[in-house]
Amino acid sequence: MIGTPTPGVSETWVASSPQGGEFTHPSLILVPNTPPTCAITTPATNISVITGTSVTIVATAADTPPGTIAQVEFFDGVTSLAVDNTTPYEYTYTATVTRSITAVATDNQGSSTTSNVRVISVGANQPPVVVVSATPTSVVVTNNVTLSAPTLSDPDGTVASLQYYYRTTPCGAGTAIGALLTATPGHKYGPRQTLQELIMCMVLLQTT
After folding, report:
1. Who has greater pLDDT, 90 or 170?
2. What pLDDT does 117 receive?
3. Contact, 40 vs 59, CB < 8 A?
4. The pairing of beta strand 47-50 with beta strand 118-123
5. Residues 160 and 207 sit within 8 Å (Cβ to Cβ)
6. In which element (H, E) is residue 192 found?
7. Where do the structural domains in the chain lie, given as residue ranges?
8. 135: exposed, middle or buried (C-beta count within 10 Å: 0-12, 13-18, 19+)?
9. Which CATH architecture has domain 37-123?
10. What per-residue confidence (pLDDT) applies to 182?
11. Which of 55, 65, 144, 189 is deepest in the core (most CB within 10 A)?
12. What's the whole-model pTM score?
């Protein structure tokens, strides 16, 4: 063995025999191994989820030919979570605590690259927000009142359904019910009384 080749340096190799013959190999330039690329693509940004939500982390990795990706390992800080050696490179878990996720791609030559960090924070489920309106806000006996919910949203999910109640009796569903509520005989409703007496309870269900 003549010596250890130096990457990026032109080397000329000469072989000789005891009889004095020589063979000169053409100059060689050894190319150093290029580390792979690695990035977390899903989620695209840091996110906050509800406790118990299923979260899938997806990473992409590539290597310069003829190199290949041997594996992608997912970490929470310095703690290894999972290893995936086939595409798509992904890891799914149930969110219970806040995690700082990274992916580390390693190629067949042992070079590795760490991805960007994704912070997956966890919080309690937040209730939906609803604003109810009544038209008209003041009616006389036997006249009707139409209820609607022009503002309906959820801060950390989506609203699945909306149910109107008259005291304890369901009387309609949806963001604007077509049915009418009749004012109680002998009482004239004002705006505050309309919301308090006609809408005794509203139940909103949500999905994550």
Report:
1. 90
2. 98
3. yes
4. parallel
5. yes
6. helix 191-193
7. 37-123, 129-207
8. exposed
9. Sandwich (2.60)
10. 47
11. 189
12. 0.59
